[in-house]
Write a structure and sequence with these properties.
The chain is α/β, with parallel strands linked by helices and 254 residues long. It contains nine helices and twelve strands. Helix 1 links the parallel strand 1 and strand 2.
Length: 254
């Protein structure tokens, strides 16, 4: 398989981590995987069977990049060593060029729908671009044989917006990593929590597109029932300072 993505660890975001777990899981099942992604720094190495392309920073969103088109290079590489299928995780210029290359060579393509970039337009003060972003994503994903989504709700929503061939690929929980045996009473004590206290944790970029207001309202409703609850924020982002100022009882770990 060839996986094409415009973000990958050590970049910290949900798409990067999801793609890495997909890559590791495929390799763990005995598959050969080629990873195509933008170069992150001068000393960056592609790894066995990988390909690095040129990338630039994404405007308005620190920490994310997009890859420049590489259709001709991908066609040459995939003619030499043809993958059985291509998975494209991101809808940027690199993703579009991979879609064109794979279709030109008759290689089956699946795309991953990870981010509502149309909603980002509204969240970042560009609401007039929201319909354009939606049309751009719909056109991209409808060129693939399947668009993989993590929830049934998203599948239903996209189908209502004219997306075709939407397939639910459910997420899983690593029960070795997320296990009660990992409980750390010393850490909980630093958060001001006793053995029976309730820690509510938000993990993610602290930014407008994450629907942070809903998270805060939900916690306050829960806190009315459990006064011993503490809200722990793991992550950083442009909304962090405002949330901390308005909610001095929140614990921000960075």
């Amino acid at each position: 398989y060839a996986i094409v993505t415009e973000t990958y660890p050590p970049e910290v975001n949900g798409v990067a981590l999801t793609v890495r777990e997909l890559e590791r899981s495929l390799r763990g099942r005995g598959h050969d995987v080629e990873l195509v992604r933008p170069r992150q720094h001068r000393q960056d190495h592609a790894g066995p069977g990988g390909m690095l392309t040129t990338g630039v920073h994404l405007p308005l969103y620190a920490g994310l990049r997009f890859g420049l088109p590489a259709a001709a290079r991908l066609r040459r590489a995939w003619r030499r060593q043809r993958p059985d299928a291509v998975y494209i995780a991101t809808e940027g210029p690199l993703g579009w060029s991979a879609m064109r290359a794979a279709r030109a060579l008759g290689i089956p393509v699946a795309s991953g729908f990870h981010t509502r970039f149309d909603h980002y337009m509204r969240d970042y003060g560009l609401p007039l671009l929201e319909p354009l972003a939606l049309a751009w994503m719909r056109r991209f994903h409808n060129r693939s044989a399947a668009t993989l989504v993590p929830t049934r709700e998203l599948r239903t929503g996209l189908e209502g917006l004219g997306f075709r061939h939407v397939v639910h690929l459910p997420r899983a929980v690593d029960t070795r990593r997320f296990d009660p045996a990992q409980r750390d009473e010393a850490l909980r004590a630093r958060w001001g929590l006793g053995p029976a206290g309730l820690a509510v944790i938000h993990v993610g970029r602290i930014a407008a597109e994450k629907n942070l207001g809903l998270a805060i309202r939900a916690f306050r409703a829960l806190q009315a029932l459990r006064p011993d609850a503490r809200f722990i924020w793991v992550g950083e982002g442009p909304e962090q300072a405002g949330i901390r100022e308005a909610n001095p009882d929140f614990i921000c770990c960075g």
